[in-house]
Amino acid sequence: MNHFEVLVPARETEIFRVTDDIAEVMAAQDFSPAAVREFSAAVKEVMTNIIRHGYRGKPGEIRVSCTGSPEKVAVEIADSAPAFDPTKFPGADRGPGIAFVRQAADIVTYRHRDHRNILTLVKVRRKGE
Which domain holds residue 114? Predict the structure, then answer.
């Protein structure tokens, strides 16, 4: 598998469904187990933040798409919680989670379009990954 897109309810019980699919995409592209674990943990952190701080426990949905290639894997995470750009805040000033996401992903971008937060994380293959 090198691509998937899924719409899940904003519940923490749904996170592993998504991270399992990301792990499958990365494994199919021969990323190292360590790279898979770290990048999946970053996606888990983002989704947890959306559920806890964006939706604040209220009903909502999170759309996740993932595309993998031998050179990189890109994950787009979209939600309709209040606008929040995590790329505008310095590292640990907003908590260790955002700093970890920045460390685990090589590229982190944010845009707000059609009342949706869209965060894209890209992991570029390094030698040995």
Answer: 3-124
